[in-house]
Design goal:
Elements lengths: L5 E7 L3 E7 L5 E2 L13 E2 L9 H13 L6 E5 L10 H11 L4 E5 L7 H6 L5 E4 L6 H7 L8 H14 L3 E8 L7 H14 L3 E6 L14 H11 L3 E3 L12 H14 L4 H8 L3 H13 L3 E6 L2 E6 L4
Parallel strand pairs: 2-5, 3-4, 5-6, 6-7, 7-8, 8-9, 9-10
Antiparallel strand pairs: 1-2, 11-12
Helix pairs in contact: 1-2, 6-7, 9-10
Bound molecules: iron/sulfur cluster (SF4).
The site of iron/sulfur cluster has 10 residues, from loops.
Length: 311
């Protein structure tokens, strides 16, 4: 099956119905976060290059939009770090020529020490960078960055970006039980967050399976406590079971089929893509397999799901 780089739209609490765009192959990233829902980083790098040609991505975005799909956002994110793609700036520029749909970028901010990287994001409507640590030690514990990335360079780049960027910055802070979730951690993080001065601060935790089993979720009440310390701009976005997002079975089923129509996905891909608990999504999958709407395919030891007939 031909590889696809554009998927969805999938529902996202922060971004509405989001048309996702992969800019790098699976798990090409400058970090190897202990909480990553995509598993361990296969290729940890800081090399910037056109991993996926702009033309191919643009053609797919164009095709989607001509199918009549009306997403709330086009989100450059996917399964690795999008700023590693050296063409990200021109890609944003070209997408904005195609459509008025806002373009958002999900990034780990690791390369923000480079003015070239910061410059390449200036035309995006929203940038959603991560900040999970407040010093080198925490940075190495949680994000396990490429050895050439220091906390200092990253955070100074993020602060510079906060001053230069004309759009909205929604900072994501991922906290983990016993690692970076104490009151003292919150106060230390607040120091840096105030320097970045984002429009919003989104607090998340490991509700879904992580790269490391010891990366455990923080209890909802502790998340709220942490959030309060960070101030008014902070809100909890962790998709706990029973959250507002997927109220009806029909919505989840439709989104699931929509996702599988674009590319075969593993259970983890689907759970991450739809932002729904893995066990919950399994129930939908089992029902659709039973109804012969979707089927399993095995590649090596990995099981993928795909539609039985084109949808
Ligand atoms: S969570 Fe994001 S930044 Fe961290 S390893 Fe996974 S893809 Fe990379």
């Amino acid at each position: 099956m031909k590889e696809r780089f554009v998927y969805g739209p999938v529902p996202s609490r922060r971004l509405g119905r989001s048309l996702g765009v992969d800019l790098v192959p699976f798990k090409v990233c400058s970090y190897n976060c202990i909480y990553c829902q995509l598993g361990k980083t296969k290729h940890k790098t800081i090399e910037r290059k056109p991993y996926i040609p702009t033309e191919r991505i643009l053609n797919e975005v164009h095709q989607k939009l001509t199918e009549g799909i009306r997403p709330d956002r086009i989100t450059l994110a996917g399964s690795g770090e999008p700023t590693l793609n050296s063409e990200i700036g021109s890609l944003i520029h070209e997408i904005k020529k195609l459509t008025k749909t806002p373009v958002a970028v999900l990034t780990n901010a690791s390369l923000f020490g480079s003015s070239l990287v910061r410059e390449s994001l200036m035309e995006a409507d929203e940038v959603l960078p991560s900040l999970d640590a407040y010093d080198q030690n925490g940075f190495e514990t949680v994000n396990r960055p490429h050895p050439e990335i220091t906390f200092k360079a990253m955070v100074e780049g993020l602060i510079a970006f906060g001053k230069e960027y004309p759009g909205e910055i929604w900072l994501e802070v991922f906290i983990l039980d016993g690692i970076n979730a104490t009151e003292s951690d919150a106060l230390h993080l607040k120091h840096w967050i105030e320097k970045v001065s984002p429009h919003k601060v989104h607090i998340n935790t490991a509700v879904r399976p992580s790269a490391e089993a010891y990366a455990r979720q923080v209890a909802p009440e502790d998340l709220v406590r942490f959030c309060k310390i960070l101030g008014e701009k902070a809100e909890v976005i962790a998709p706990f079971r029973g959250s507002e997002k997927h109220e009806t079975q029909a919505v989840v089923e439709k989104d699931l089929l929509n996702l599988l129509a674009r590319r075969p996905c593993t259970l983890e891909d689907i759970a991450a893509g739809l932002n729904v608990d893995r066990d919950e999504i399994l129930k939908y999958i089992e029902r659709l397999v039973k109804k012969h709407v979707i089927e399993t395919v095995k590649r090596g030891s990995i099981i993928y799901y795909q539609p039985k007939k084109p949808l």
